[in-house]
Amino acid sequence: MIVPRPIGPRVVRAAILAAASVLLLAYVLAPVAWLLSSSLQTEREIVSIPPHWIPDHPTAQNFRAIFATGLGLAQPSPNGADPASGGFIPSVAGNLLPAMGNSFIVATAVVILNLLIGVPAAYAIAKIRFRGRGVALYAILATRVIPDIALVVPFFLVVRKLGLLDNLASLIITYLAITVPFSVFVLASFFEQMPDDLDRAARVDGCSRLQVLLRVFLPLARPALVAISLFAFLASWNEFLLALMFTQTAASQTLPIIVAGITSDFTVSFSFLNAAGVLAVLPPVALAVIFERYIVSGLTAGAVKG
Amino acid sequence: MARIRFQSVTKRYANGATAVAGLDLDIADQEFLVLLGPSGCGKSTTLNMIAGLEEISEGVLLFDDQIVNNVPAHKRDVAMVFQSYALYPHMTVFENIAFGLRMRRVGEADLRMRVMQAADKLEITHLLERRPSQLSGGQRQRVALGRAMVREPAVFLMDEPLSNLDASLRISMRAQIRHLHTQMRSTFVYVTHDQAEALTLADRIVVMKDGTIQQIGTPDEIYESPTNVFVASFLGSPTINLLEGALERENGAACFKRGTLTIPLPALQGGARNIVLGLRPEDVGTPGDGPQLHGVVDTAMPSGADQFLGVLVDDAMLFLRVGKDVRVRAGEAISFGLNPERLHVFDRETGRSLRGAA
Fold it and tell me: Is A266 exposed, middle or buried (0-12, 13-18, 19+ CB in 10 A)?
């Protein structure tokens, strides 16, 4: 005869863990879910109580407006709803896609320059014994202790002197100052973990320092490279403060500036704002999904030492 | 073809530590030279200077007649096997072995042939498509050897290549390395702290300590006539017995005195002084005409082919190797005959051998 086993402590534990996971997931994902859901709702439906998590009448009007105006097909205009309720297309709608393009150019340039600067610097710090090596690493690290806001004014002065105000280059230069130290630090600790003998074996086998880096260390450092690239991309993509200072026109404004600008119209269209938000999170999410398997190993690899 | 010469070479690290001091060494072409010493003696630093992996602080290093102080590692015709093997984890065994040839732009057909030949010799052909992480320690060792071998370098460097292998594999790899040397006809420099390895492999051994050379010689010379106490005690297993005592003269003949113990040392010149007497465990025989040693057996340890006895002589414990036919038990008295020719005598203050003066 089979006696049903009493519910053991393991089952209870698993149940608690599962419940906790669901709660945490709900907590983290609810805002994102609302962002997505509300971007497909009309302005009237958004303000209904209780909120509609699943839209009654899903509409792509906001997205249509963004793409239509962004491509220069239509002028921003009220979309037929009651203006008092905010159901209209904001004046900056047409700037969203160009701003996204700006963000993409800046973020990509920052990633590429991060790799070009960070990789050789990290290799040198990790594997070449030179005078001032320790000082170099700590100096690089120390720049990250300073809060960004303290750098805004000095950065502004430099950028203005260079004549780069309202120019994408101003953002690329300043974002590099913020991201490169982190990249060097993560990569240097990653390279440091690689045995010295590997470096020496490659040199005896006929590699110059640069060839050791390209043929042995880089292939092995892929997780760290992905991690720092993502970090640099996301930091640039999301950056707001410096972009607000250095950019003035659509020529150089990035996505966060335009999205923030939507709220400064006289009336705020929440559904449109959320649609813009969806567009803003799409590229980073896509990158994270594509490189997911590298991210964790890359970041922990950098974190173990140092 | 490479003769390697160190001329008063010193290596100082940035922290001020001196790894190698005033090294003079002449390594003949196609010689098998072993650098032997305890860890921190400068042997690996010496090897790395030959490889070009360490800069030379002072002095001159020559390959044949060319000064190579400033020639970078990748431009020296040198191959190296590391203790950690240092295989490239992201490459297959084939690519690991081929790497050095690729860097030297060897053609694909020639490269393939040389890798296959090396793999064949080392019996790792079936592993060529694997990654290093899928190999055992012994297999990795072979790949590391193969990687150095295919290059057919003028100088072949090995830094404790067998230390990470288990004992039986180590013995068979020694034979293989010796074989490799006769085949390759290049200059081998081999670093180890294992005296047995040094004695088996070397044409000449360089014993080092604290960054200086203690003695250079053939394995026989080093073992039979050590120039100082350090060399004497570093080679041989079990280690040489060292007895502190005094050199005295009785009726003009020199003899070693310690407590009740007196051993005549007829060949020895020089006046009375404090000395250390060295007696290798195997250098005792049956009691005969010569000087004798009397003691009490403390422990008897059979070791297969023969046995080791711990013998209490006067107040000193000596470790001796005797045949298995000597049947003794702990507590029994025992006597040995000594051959004065095979006794080592060192000055107690300087540690230097007094044999040279004999």
Answer: exposed
